[in-house]
Amino acid sequence: MSATNTAVRTLIVMPTYNEVENLKPTLSGIFANAPQAEVLVVDDNSPDGTGRLAQFMAQGEPRLHVMHREGKNGLGPAYLAGFQWALERGYDMICEMDMDGSHRPEDFRRMLDVAVMNPDVDLVIGSRRVPGGATVNWPWVRDAISRGGSWYARTMLGLPVHDMTAGFRIYRASMLARLGLERVQANGYVFQVDMTRRVAAAGGVIREVPIVFVERVRGNSKMSSRIVAEAMLMVTKWGLERLSHRN
Question: Given a cut of 60, is residue 226 above it in pLDDT?
Answer without folding.
Answer: yes
